Amino acid sequence: MDDTQQPTVFDTDQQQLGDVYAKAFLGFAKESGKLDAMVEELGEVVGVFNELPKFRLAMESPRIDAADKTSMLDKAFKGKCSDGLLNFLKMVAQRDRFDCLNSIHSSTVKAHDEMAGRVKATLTTASEIETSVQDSVAKKLSGILGKEVTLVCVVDPDIVGGMVVRVGDTVYDGSVVNQLQQVRAKAVKKAVDAFREKLDKFITT
Fold this sequence. Notes:
It is built from 8 helices and 5 strands. The chain is an alpha+beta fold.
């Protein structure tokens, strides 16, 4: 795998707000002594909203006031999730930031993993790869990063071959496409340098 690192930045308002709310959520979840359970519970609730788009759209709608949204949350989740999580959801609804729910969850999982010394990596390949290869990649990344790596595998025929590994905002690109692009870039540079050398000789003679 190529060691070239290409940092990519996703600087959106939702992700920034997701980080802020995630920090708040993890803070009181830790104080409650139920950190792991509440993080898992948040994921389950987010899954419910993703499976019920009409419910989600209603919670995101600026036309529905905060009191009605709070009532909707009580009817849907009271007694079915922890009071701490329900109160957190109400706070998000009252501040009209339910559109950030997925970002909040993503930021929460990422921060929780960091607290536990874990990191998630996405491995993209042109076709499915054997479990032994996945384990090998995860082991190598763990050695590089000094953390436990959870590997998520994705198949994308467009990368042609090889593999692309994303860890957070960093991409380790070892795909054939990237290799070809690097070869092409080097060839173009070599041709330009040769042309400049000939031009310099022509001018000075």
